[in-house]
């Protein structure tokens, strides 16, 4: 005699609860909807869908009478449900009162996701689209319409996205901060936008290490037939763009900074000496002189460039021009 297969009541209960939790936001967004269409969406029978609706209809606080209270948690057009097999959720006080994003908050998050969608690989974009949909659905009102316009890639660098998506190597001529040009062969891994400047991070065969390149300094970018030959996951790269030795510019800079402002160097992996008289000396590697200008501008008059000489001269001239532009005519 064969043993009768025993069902698992706990597992069945979990399935029912999971379907009910999923049904609530679906019905909020899609009411009115036929029982047949709702059942097809969840892959269940029409009877099971009707059972979910009946359970939601009586979900809430029963009140003193013990018979349930209108407008308590979930409410449906019951006559439409019984007579025409149509689900129309007319009230959902509980979900509406839970903390949710405002339209402005949702718009800000969606703008950030739009920014990311232009950077991530093609196979990651569906996840961003799904998250955008959830944020829109979870806001208290319709998100404000914000369009994110990103700085375009330089025309020479536009093939980089294709190379990254196809896991191909590229070659290009690269002009560094000193104006010197070198031929590079690189496995491109990731594109990042900092301010209005695009950067590409990849494994450089010439340097035999990870490097960061300004795309507007790339010339004659060519996608090779060779596949990427380094198993470095783009998501494993540090979020700090100019992590040493990630830069390819080779500008080793020595700064003097007030000890109280050392936090300004957090993104540069600085090597900081002990404080002397309230001032520390820091060694950092910059990708370009423009980045050094931005750093100095964070604390005008407080950060002093010590080395190299060409960077000292550049910052001095830049400061003089800035003062002249700001002085009254």
TrEMBL record:
<dbReference type="InterPro" id="IPR051534">
    <property type="entry name" value="CBASS_pafABC_assoc_protein"/>
</dbReference>
<feature type="domain" description="PafC HTH">
    <location>
        <begin position="17"/>
        <end position="136"/>
    </location>
</feature>
<dbReference type="InterPro" id="IPR043839">
    <property type="entry name" value="PafC_HTH"/>
</dbReference>
<dbReference type="Pfam" id="PF19187">
    <property type="entry name" value="HTH_PafC"/>
</dbReference>
<feature type="domain" description="WYL">
    <location>
        <begin position="159"/>
        <end position="223"/>
    </location>
</feature>
<protein>
    <submittedName>
        <fullName>Unannotated protein</fullName>
    </submittedName>
</protein>
<dbReference type="Pfam" id="PF13280">
    <property type="entry name" value="WYL"/>
</dbReference>
<dbReference type="InterPro" id="IPR026881">
    <property type="entry name" value="WYL_dom"/>
</dbReference>
<dbReference type="InterPro" id="IPR028349">
    <property type="entry name" value="PafC-like"/>
</dbReference>
